[in-house]
Each structure stands twice: as structure tokens, then as C-alpha cells.
Design goal:
Layout (H helix, E strand, L loop, with lengths): L8 H17 L4 H16 L9 H10 L1 H4 L13 H11 L9 H12 L1 H7 L6 H11 L7 E3 L6 H8 L9 E5 L2 H14 L4 E5 L18 H6 L8 E6 L6 E2 L2 H4 L12 E2 H12 E12 L1 H4 L4 H10 E8 L13 E8 L10 E4 L13 E2 L2 E2 L3 H11 L4
Parallel strand pairs: 1-2, 1-4, 2-3, 4-7, 8-10
Antiparallel strand pairs: 5-6, 7-9, 8-9, 11-12
Length: 391
Amino acid sequence: MAKRHQTGDHLISQIRRCQELIMARTGVDEFYETIRLIIAKSFWEKTEKTESLTYLVAQRLLGGNSQIVERFVEGETLLCAPPDVAEECLRILTPTELGSTSYEALHTVFEQMTGKQYKSDKGQYFTPPHIVDFCVSVLRPKAGELICDPACGSGAFLKSAHDRMSLSELPTTFGFDISKRAAKTGALLSYLACEDLVRVHQLDALAVEPNSLFEIEGLSIEECMRQYGSEFKGFDIIATNPPFAGDVSDADFLEYYETSRLSGGKVERDTLFLERCKNLLKPGGRLAIVLPDNKFSGAKFANLRKWLCKEMQIKAVVSLHSYTFRPFTSQKTCVLFAVRSADDLNGGAISFYRSDKAGKSSNGEPVYEGGLLDHDLSGIAEDIMKDWKIG
């Protein structure tokens, strides 16, 4: 069970206060200006701190590291707020050491910064940390394996996988997101908390590789991965919570997804993500994906389930508690654990589980027992791993 965390509460309130100042007293985009402030604070913490973090010091640090800064912001790399506002924000941030702040606290900060509106419109919500750790612990990533989240948001699955592997000089964890802000947030969190070894790119993960199926604008995941080496043949592990909302209606696009012809009606985005994940895995590659409960129980998705059983070896389906994603949504979800079928893999028994403890109350507040988050996923994970042997 996850422990109760209080570290970072001050940082959350400090960031909120900075954004309020920027919105009230400037016309600057508060999201990217806050990012610039955080980066300047991070640079300053790595100096000998012989001088206070003033507006001029921050500008000098940002200007001297502009190639780093431009990875995390859109537009200007220097602070854009008037000096008096920026100076006040820097004073607010100074007491908290980013270097000693937990990843969970940093993740919460950026979750709040990206705002609820984007997430609710897309049917995409940041995954609770205990769900992330549950999925990754069952997948058991090993050093040298290529790991992907094609709808990574701020990169929580990738961070969890990174923490479970031996450190390597070469990145082996890769995230992709259609939202530029989410991708830049994930890249910054990698820089702050993952030794910059998690690579996050902004692109549409559902876009298929050009010259094989159809032409698209921008990179596909396959093309992007070849920038790291020409021998890319798929990922060993994919862990993801893709967006649920929004039907896909582009006929030219859907023509190349087999699952688009299985429902006999509107094509839901998460269905396409399921097929895309299968195709991005190597034969024998492992998958954990959060999907709406109706994909496993709804009559209209019977053909999808038949397709899934044909294309993948299903290891387990875990029905999550309806409180899991509250306060954002009460939608019932499941986690699918599966392996991309290979010639030497035969179908076997599928284990079904139901989580009865969400670690949350009906209003989405954390529920603790003995100082630990009160959920039952650790026991479920142990049970799945007993039957699922990974070489």
C-alpha cells in the first residue's frame, strides 16, 4: 500500500499562489511562465547559492541554459512577467527545495497545473499512483527492455517503470502524447525526477507509420523510435491509460484499424488504442491498459473481445472500484493484462479479479488505514504474478 505523503503540500500552494499572481497582474500564459519559474529554481538549486534567487539571477540562469529550457516551454525561454511579479513569485518558491521534493508531489503539482478542463474534455484523467504502481509491478520491467506509454500525460507509468530498473546511460522508457502541454510536462518531470532518462514526445499515437499504411503529417511512433536506433522492432512493455472520450469518424483513418469494423457503430478512441498497443508490442511483449468496463461486459463489444482473444494471450482482467478516478469521474474501469501472441504462446485460463477497496472515499479523498492507502491491489498483484511467469 502507498504511504501517506505530506511532502510537497507547500509547493502545491506556492505554485497555486504564483499562478494567481501571474493571471491577476499580467497577460502572460500562466502555465508556461510557471514552468519557467520552476526551471529557474531548479537551475539555482544546482549552483552554490552564493546569491539569492532574484529576477536577474533567474534570467541569467534561463538564458545560459536556453537549449534545455526550450524543451519544456512554448515560445520564449526567459521569464515574460514584469520583474516585480516574477520577483514575488521567486520569493514564494525559494523556501521549497525541488531536489528534495518527492516525484508524487511534483506530479500532483503538474496535474493541477494542466487543469481539469482538458482532461474531462478528452475523457483522460491522471492515473492514481497506486494504480500506476499496481500495473507496473505486475509487468515487472527489466533492465534493457523498451517500455512505452502511448498516451503518457505527465509520465507516471514511465517514472514507475524507470524506478524499477537498473540505471542505464541510454533511455529505454518512452512516452507519447497528443497534447503539447502534457508532453512538455512529462519531459520536465523526467528532467527533474528521472535523470532525464525518460523520453517524451508530442505526437498522435494513433497515427500509423507512413509508406506502410497511409500518409500522415508528422512522426509516427515507429519513425520517432528510429531516431534512437534503426533496429526498432517493437516495445517489450506498454503500460497506459488512454483517453476514453471522443468517437473517431475519419473514414480514411479508420480503414486501417481492424477494430473499427467490429462494433457496427461509432468507433471509440480507446478501442483503437488497444489495437495500436498490440501492434506496437514485440511478439511476446507485455501490456497493461486501463479500459472502460463496457469493453469487457457490454454486448456490443462481443466481437472486440473475440478479436482480443485471437490476437493476444489474456493473463488477467481486474475490475477497478468505481471510486478509483473520483472526483473526476465515476466511470467503471478495468485493467487488462495481456501478452502479444507469438507462435509459441497458446491461450490459457483468464483470471478475473474485482477490487473492493479503492483507497478513496465517494468524494475522491484518500482513505488510509494504519498510515497506508487502504486498497487491495497489492494482494491481487501477487496472485497474478504467481500464475504469470516472466523469463
